[in-house]
Amino acid sequence: MRFQRSRSATVVPGALALFLAALLAPGCGGSAPPPTDPSAAREFLVQALDAWKSGEPKGSLADGKPSILVNDPDWERASKLIDYELDGDGHPLGAGIQWTVPLTLSAGGKTVKKRAVYVVNVADKNIAVSRQDMDF
Hints:
about 35% strand; globular
């Protein structure tokens, strides 16, 4: 009895090898973004949080110069930011800067305390402020 190898059996390992090589290869000639300046990142985060605290709509900062794009689920749900605490210069995270920020929110007539992690990335003339919740 002769074992005959099917064509698909040889294609799969070859395709897998190409896929792994693509994953491990450096970017397509592009360079990594420069690291975000911690003091500038802090100013942008304060600007975003102050805008929320003063009652501005979440998208209000996107039309500014520079454009600040904010990703915050509580702001999107129209929760009111009552207070926040921002200490220190943050910590590098990739090309961005990260802060843990205690928030006091008003949602549905209740006061809620949360601890959020914000990451600020500056790329050219666009600033991204993203939030991830943590336990308080």
